Amino acid sequence: MPSQNVRVHVYGWLLLMPAAILLIAFTHFPTVATLVQSLFTTGTATRPAAFVGAENYQIMLEDDVFWQVVQNNIWYAVGTIPVSIAIAILMAVWVNARLPARGLVRMAYFTPTVLPMIAVANIWLFFYTPDIGLIDQVVSLFGGGSHNWLGDPDTVLGCIIVITIWKEAGFFMIFYLAALQSLPPELEEAAHLEGASRWYYFRRVTFPLLMPTTLFVLINAVINSFKLVDQLFILTKGGPDNASSLLLYYIYEVAFSFFDEAYAATLTVVLLAVLAVISVGQFLLLDKRIHYR
Amino acid sequence: MGAVRGLETGAAWLLALLWVLPLLYAFWSAFHPAEYATRFDLLAPLTLDNFREAWSQAPFARYYLNTFLLVTSVLAAQFVLCTLAAYAFARFEFVGRELAFALVLVQLMIMPEVLIVENYTTMSKLGLVDTITGIGLPYMASAFGIFLLRQTFKTVPKELEEAARVEGCSMLQVLWKVYIPLARPTYVAYGLVSVSYHWNNFLWPLVITNSVETRPLTVGLAIFGAPESGVEWSIITAGTLLAVAPLLIAFLLFQRQFVQSFMHAGIK
Within an 8 Å CB–CB cutoff, is residue A175 touching chain B? Predict the structure, then answer.
């Protein structure tokens, strides 16, 4: 019997082995290596990497661009998350109701999800073009002047936020749709018999019941706001003057345009710390508040 | 009540129109001569010249091939690796299972695109910079896939496994004959999500590739459509549509399947 037992352990580990090797090589090892690298200088052919302790972090705290990028990323998150969640709920409620041409409407909402961000940015780039772009054309109909939407530090981040909302809302919609479809129909009938308005019903019944979905979507949205930077490569390259640069984009620039690996690693540590905080938050929120209330 | 419903229907349609407008606009500009890119005239002549131009200005055929190779190799590897690992987690009580599973889930948070700097160093040590294997390798062991399949395998009744054992099936035969067939819907859902993800993925492929022979469509498109490339607008939209066409057509044909797959994959 003990030999049988040993076999189970061995089989278990053997089955896991191929995936485990790749996960260690490309997730766990680089995470640790990033932490280590952030404590060294960038090595060159003539000058090997030297241990400098917290010096890279010191440099980071004194780097104006870093603070600008952090600030941008917070605005990016604040700008995209609540609006895309609100639109997603609205879309889901509409598509879940008896709506003429419902299939078409749902398809329209969901389509941006299957498009690559690069293609989306290519299309939107033209909307934002001064004078001939679609937005300036519409503005000029109402007597407005031309505006360099992506060239103005005051509007550029807003432009990026709009695109991200457009891309994400339909994706989040499907999770709400799934949740709405799992609600018992008797609830709405009962509320209707009681004479509750639809808004009242939504506010007091549907919305609270959608809470687990909202948290799930919220966490995904927060992660996305730190991960989704593809559009910057086409639209702004982080400019003008870093006004639209985000943390991951800055990491890319530092590593692959300025070739400063050590500083890129230091910035990556900040990103990893943010993701760690999100995981802890997810663990606490999802496990306690939602299931055991 | 009726009026409110009507208003809501109108609003829902308006939002739908707003949501497809960018794409409709891309179609408009791609299928018309450049001078109509900003002038909307229903009688404007249709043309395929923009597509012809885009096709001749960038090696789209090669990009298609690269993306196809990338997506299929990643998917095949993910199916094999995630199936084996999920089977281990679902049915084998080995030492350190819980800890190993927790370590796998770390990848749900720290996705490979966050670790571009270190992963690039690793790839250059392995000599895999600028190869299609190099683009796909960090994604092949997918925590998401392992998690999804483990959940599905756990719902398979033990009796089925025991019956197969009685008939003399080995462990791997049980996996092949009992678990995998029963998990088919999960494979379809995961497959669609994975294909869409890797068809559209950009940052890591951009970092790790530097030649036409390896670049996937997204990276090729970014180079082709970059404002400094000076390519005419209508031709860029034509190129953009070329790049998204296969996935978009698949989505339009199998819309229900796509939506359900994303749903299925997200809820687990």
Answer: yes
Most confident segment among A77-86, A120-129, A226-235, B164-173: A77-86
Does A29 reside within a domain? no
Question: What does the pLDDT look like over A36-45, one tens digit per residue?
Answer: 999 988 877 7
Q: Name chain B contacts of A111, Cβ cutoff 8 Å.
A: 19-20, 23, 248, 251
Q: Rounded to whole angstroms, what are the CA distances from B115 to A16, A267, B108, B112? A: 23, 11, 13, 5
User: CB A252 to CB B140 under 8 A?
Assistant: no
Asked if B210 reaches chain A (Cβ–Cβ under 8 Å), the answer is no
Task: Quick: pLDDT tens for A163-176.
Answer: 999 999 999 998 89
- Short-list B114, B124, B210, CA closest to A264: B114
pLDDT at B268: 52
| Touching A: B residues 40-79, CB under 8 Å | none
| Helix, strand, coil share of chain B (percent; to 5) | 80, 0, 20
- More confident of the two residues A136 and A35: A35
Other CB atoms within a 10 A radius of the CB of residue A178 amount to 19
Give per-residue pLDDT as tens, A160-217. 999 999 999 999 998 898 888 888 888 878 887 887 788 888 888 888 888 888 888 8
The alpha-carbon gap from A62 to the nearest alpha carbon of chain B, in Å, equals 22
- Give the distance from residue A247's alpha carbon to the nearest chain B alpha carbon, in angstroms: 10
What is the spatial distance between Cα B16 and Cα B11, in angstroms, rounded to a whole number?
Answer: 8
Domain holding A209: CATH number?
1.10.3720.10
Residue B213 in tokens = 């022979």
| Residue B248 CB neighbour total at 10 angstroms | 16
Q: Which residues of A touch B85 (CB under 8 A)?
A: 15-16, 18-20
Query: Which domains occur in chain B, in start order?
Result: 2-47 (no CATH), 60-267 (1.10.3720.10)
Is residue B196 less than 8 Å (CB to CB) from chain A?
A: yes
Per the structure, how many domains does chain A have? 1
Its domain, for residue A222, covers 48-290
Residue A79 forms part of a structural domain = yes
Q: Which tokens belong to B218? A: 């997204």
- List the alpha helices (DSSP H) in B44-131: 49-57, 60-91, 97-109, 116-126
Let me know if residue A137 belongs to a domain. yes
Note the pLDDT tens digit of each residue in A96-138: 888 888 888 999 999 998 899 999 998 898 888 877 777 887 7
Distance from CA of B239 to the nearest CA of A (A): 9
Secondary structure class of B77 (helix, strand, coil):
helix
Q: Which of A22, A148, A172, A279 would best serve as a mutation to test chain B binding (most B beta carbons within 10 A)? A: A22
Kindly list the residues from chain A whose CB atom is less than 8 angstroms away from the CB atom of residue B109.
223, 275-276, 278-279
User: Do A28 and B103 count as a contact with CB atoms less than 8 A apart?
Assistant: yes
Q: Is the ipTM of this complex over 0.90?
A: no
Condensed to tens digits (0 to 9), the pLDDT of residues A54-78 reads 888 999 999 999 999 999 999 999 9
Find all residues with CB under 8 Å of B76, minimum gap 6, and list them: none
Q: Which residue in chain B has the smallest CA separation from A272?
A: B110
